[in-house]
């Protein structure tokens, strides 16, 4: 559909809002992508901004728990892998802040909301990384849960978000595999290494299941996001899919999942699993997790310490823009 039919021009409503709304609904139903200049309902825009921002914040806060181990990686190979992974997460943050900016918010505003606690990031990153095996458990379980959540987002109705997700998912798959491979090496290592791998899985399993969000009945935004084709599957569906994927992988790893109620249910064709501690989830979300304060404090400090980089980049951009249309000699050829 040509852009003008959906009210292209920055979302202005020139008097016939209902017609734009119908065109929007039809485009979503036809699996067409909504692009930044298309008309969209205010609530659709607000939902996307909230979701993409929270996702972007999670990527950059998520660098902290693993960065904790970069200097202590047990070999050069492991260090190179971990560095690449943590750097990827910074890149994911950038794609996602870029996608959010197409909806009319600035990155500055979003970071300000993160730093002041008005926007959230995934509560998984408020848990500490106590041993080297945690790097493996995060890759296998946390990146694994992220992929389960994010693969359907590659078909999200909003074009810039969907396209960012395609690239992100390719990299997440590398993250998941490196975690699995790291845990496998530990699991097959000395008894102490095996125990360290098991302990990490014991600590990360339940928080990973919480990454899919509250149960369907309590999920505030789910139904509308599904209708808008932002979300494709419910929280509980994705959680079940993740459990079903992990059980055989845990067996191959020679590790157990810390849930006595976990068993195959022939009738359902899925694994049954025990109840998630939603009180813990809400506690961590409220800021009472083991690392909430530290994560935000470090993020704010990193932002302050990076002020000079932003200033230099902005000065460079201004100079570059000034040279484009007019006095090119001002560039001096040295930039
Ligand atoms: Fe990521
Ligand atoms: Fe990742």
UniProtKB/TrEMBL annotation:
Q: Name one Pfam family in it.
A: PaaA_PaaC
Superkingdom as given in the UniProt entry: Bacteria
Q: Name one GO cellular component term.
A: cytosol
The cross-references to Gene3D superfamilies, in alphabetical order and at most eight, read:
1.20.1260.10
Q: Kindly state a single biological-process term from the GO annotations of this entry.
A: phenylacetate catabolic process
One GO term in the molecular function aspect is: phenylacetyl-CoA 1,2-epoxidase activity
List, alphabetically, the NCBIfam families matched: PA_CoA_Oxy1 (TIGR02156)
- What protein name is recorded for this chain? 1,2-phenylacetyl-CoA epoxidase subunit A
Q: Which organism is it from?
A: Streptomyces carminius
């Amino acid at each position: 559909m040509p852009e003008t039919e959906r009210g292209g021009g920055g979302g202005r409503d020139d008097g016939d809002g209902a017609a734009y709304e119908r065109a929007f609904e039809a485009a979503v139903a036809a699996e067409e992508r909504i692009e930044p200049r298309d008309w969209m309902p205010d609530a659709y825009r607000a939902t996307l901004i909230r979701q993409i921002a929270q996702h972007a914040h999670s990527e950059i806060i998520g660098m902290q728990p693993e960065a904790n181990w970069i200097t202590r990686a047990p070999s050069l190979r492991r260090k190179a892998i971990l560095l690449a992974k943590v750097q990827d997460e910074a890149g994911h943050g950038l794609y996602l802040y870029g996608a959010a900016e197409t909806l009319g918010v600035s990155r500055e505003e979003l970071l300000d909301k993160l730093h002041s606690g008005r926007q959230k990031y995934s509560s998984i990153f408020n848990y500490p990384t106590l041993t080297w095996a945690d790097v493996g458990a995060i890759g296998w379980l946390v990146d694994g849960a992220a992929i389960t959540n994010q693969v359907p987002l590659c078909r999200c109705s909003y074009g810039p978000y969907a396209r960012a997700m395609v690239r992100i998912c390719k990299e997440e798959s590398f993250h998941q595999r490196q975690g699995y491979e790291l845990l496998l090496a530990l699991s097959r290592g000395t008894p102490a290494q095996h125990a360290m791998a098991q302990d990490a899985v014991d600590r990360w399993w339940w928080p990973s299941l919480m990454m899919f969000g509250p149960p369907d009945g309590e999920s505030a935004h789910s139904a509308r996001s599904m209708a808008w084709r932002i979300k494709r599957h419910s929280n509980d569906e994705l959680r079940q899919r993740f459990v079903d994927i992990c059980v055989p992988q845990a067996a191959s790893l020679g590790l157990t999942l810390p849930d006595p109620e976990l068993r195959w249910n022939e009738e359902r064709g899925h694994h049954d699993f025990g109840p998630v501690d939603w009180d813990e989830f809400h506690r961590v979300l409220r800021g009472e997790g083991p690392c909430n304060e530290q994560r935000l404090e470090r993020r704010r400090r990193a932002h302050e310490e990076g002020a000079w980089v932003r200033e230099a980049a902005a000065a460079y951009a201004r100079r570059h823009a000034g040279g484009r249309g007019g006095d090119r000699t001002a560039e001096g050829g040295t930039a």
